[in-house]
């Protein structure tokens, strides 16, 4: 006869949740299944996920996964040209310029936007020693 799993009921801000003694959580970054002891899970949800179990399910990341992902994207602590909030800002501005070019047919506005893009490209290259076009998600110019 198979052993019955023991379930525990916890009250979170988004409702009551029944969890087994060893809950299997899926990492949102790697997709890996991570076993978590039910008492640790309760503390984790309360402290790091604003007592919201649905938020935990949507955004859970195993220890070290976020750091590894950032390193793969070019954010390295020991790199002189490490990416940071300023690089993120430049990338957002560059994407905005791309969207402006797609939506705009005014010749003066297009010239102004292309000049802004050139300035952003130069800034990104000077500060981060990288080509900004590599960081634009699926966009071709």
Structural overview:
With 141 residues, the chain is an alpha+beta fold. It has 2 domains: 7-68, no CATH class; 75-135. 48% of the residues lie in helices and 16% in strands. The protein has a two-stranded antiparallel ribbon with strand order 1-2. It has a two-stranded antiparallel sheet with strand order 3-4. β1 and β2 form a beta hairpin. The chain is elongated and about 70 Å long.
Distinctive features:
elongated; single chain; alpha+beta; 141 residues
Oligomeric status of the shown chains?
single chain
Estimate the strand proportion.
15-25%
The helix/strand order is: EEEEHHHHH
Strand-pairing-aware structural class: alpha+beta
Average pLDDT taken over every residue: 84
Please give the order of strands in the largest beta sheet: 1-2
Number of helices: 5
Largest sheet: 2 strands, antiparallel
Kindly state the percentage of residues in helix: 40-55%
Number of E-state strands: 4
**Per the principal axes of the C-alpha atoms, what is the gross shape?**
elongated
Summarize the structure.
This protein has helices spanning 38-48, 53-59, 65-72, 85-103, 107-128, and strands at residues 7-12, 15-20, 22-26, 33-37. By secondary structure, the chain is of the alpha+beta class. The protein folds into 2 domains: 7-68, no CATH class; 75-135.
């Amino acid at each position: 006869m198979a052993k019955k799993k023991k379930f525990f009921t916890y009250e979170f801000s988004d409702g009551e949740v029944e969890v087994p003694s060893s809950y299997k959580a899926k990492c949102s970054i790697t997709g890996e299944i991570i076993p978590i002891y039910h008492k640790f899970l309760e503390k984790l949800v309360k402290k790091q996920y604003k007592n919201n179990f649905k938020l935990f399910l949507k955004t859970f990341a195993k220890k070290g996964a976020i750091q590894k992902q950032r390193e793969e994207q070019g954010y390295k602590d020991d790199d002189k040209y490490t990416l940071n909030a300023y690089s993120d800002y430049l990338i957002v501005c560059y994407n905005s310029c791309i969207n402006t070019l797609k939506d705009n047919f005014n010749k003066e506005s297009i010239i102004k936007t292309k000049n802004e893009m050139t300035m952003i490209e130069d800034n990104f290259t000077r500060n981060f020693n990288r080509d900004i076009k590599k960081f634009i998600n699926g966009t071709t110019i």
